[in-house]
Design brief:
Mean pLDDT: 84
Helix content: 40-55%
Low-confidence stretches: none
Strand order of the largest sheet: 1-2-3
Pfam families: DUF3461
Structural class: alpha+beta
InterPro entries: UPF0325 (IPR020911)
Distance between the termini: 54 Å
Order of helices and strands: HEEEEEHH
Shape: extended
Number of strands: 5
Length: about 130
């Protein structure tokens, strides 16, 4: 599909499988996580994570003095990919309030941390 060229370049072959996405900044990188629809029998949705370096540029912050500051901005490729994702899933995300989205993200984080703790405890038990 040439309509979603940037997603295709990221390796997303079937855009119909995209359910939602999250975008966050980690240090000097932007991380986009694309959640794909789960198949029958799967408990958890599949996901793909991509990291993009942020562009850093120097801008003048005061017209009178020669003060400059470095600012970072999103990778242009990522911006275009997000536009494509928005055209696919943003309608569903806009229906949810910001509070609902944060609660959903918090629930997901709790599940991930709980599974990791269980895994670590099992590894410790196997050491005895």
């Amino acid at each position: 599909m040439t309509e979603y060229r940037h997603l295709a370049e990221m390796g997303i072959e079937d855009v119909a499988d995209i359910e939602k996405y999250t975008l966050r900044q980690e240090g000097d990188e932007d991380v986009i996580k694309i959640y794909l629809k789960r198949d029958k029998g799967e408990w958890f949705a599949r996901s793909r994570k991509f990291k993009f370096k942020r562009y850093v540029k120097t801008v003048r912050i005061n017209e009178g003095a020669q003060h400059y500051r470095e600012v970072s901005e999103m990778n242009p490729f990522l911006l275009r990919a997000v536009d494509e994702l928005d055209s696919l899933v943003a309608k569903d995300q806009r229906k949810m309030s910001e509070k609902e989205l944060l609660l959903e993200e918090l629930d997901h984080l709790e599940k991930v941390v709980s599974r990791k703790i269980t895994d670590l405890r099992a590894q410790i038990e196997n050491m005895k």
